[in-house]
Design brief:
The chain is an all-alpha fold. The chain contains seven helices and no strands. Helix content is 41%, strand content 0%. Helix 6 packs across helix 7.
Length: 172
């Protein structure tokens, strides 16, 4: 526009802060847009399923069964449920505008075991306290959670297992 001045360039710290805020807002929006379907399953459980962390992994399935890789892929690419592509990119050529803040999902099955993937999704802060990745299966110790979503994980145990099953297939 005539007479307008360009905005000053933001520092990398400001861009990082803005990206983290965008991710947090998108996660809250996803729960709202999804109509809480992901939380209903977890709420029906009454509480989170117990799991054991061994070294850098949760070796046992949260459900006692393997997840479905096709359902997991659907969660990963769904911008209203998993929101993975907000920060990550991956082998999803049909998905435009993939993230660049986090590691590419390509090859995750070759880099990490299912147990390691599971812990990274359940609560990545157990591995890196400074991560911007949200805890998808944690409800305690969180701040600034809307009352309607308090005590509810982002994904159910079944959805976590589906995502783990999908990511484990990404070996190239």
């Amino acid at each position: 526009m005539a007479g307008s001045t360009p905005s000053p360039r933001k520092s990398s710290a400001e861009r990082f802060r803005h990206a983290a805020l965008a991710a947090a807002l998108a996660a809250g929006t996803a729960s709202f847009v999804d109509g809480g379907r992901a939380q209903e399953g977890a709420q029906a459980q009454g509480k989170l399923r117990r799991y054991a962390v061994v070294a850098d992994a949760i070796p046992e399935s949260l459900t006692g069964a393997k997840g479905d890789p096709e359902r997991g892929r659907a969660i990963v690419v769904n911008r209203q449920v998993g929101l993975c592509l907000l920060c990550h990119s991956g082998p999803y050529p049909e998905e435009k505008f993939q993230g660049t803040l986090a590691p590419d999902l390509k090859g995750t099955g070759a880099r990490w075991s299912e147990g390691q993937l599971r812990l990274r999704i359940v609560d990545a802060r157990r591995l890196n306290a400074d991560t911007i990745m949200p805890a998808y299966y944690r409800v305690d110790g969180l701040t600034r959670v809307a009352p309607a979503f308090q005590g509810k994980p982002v994904l159910t145990a079944e959805q976590i297992e589906d995502v783990v099953a999908h990511l484990a297939t990404l070996r190239d």
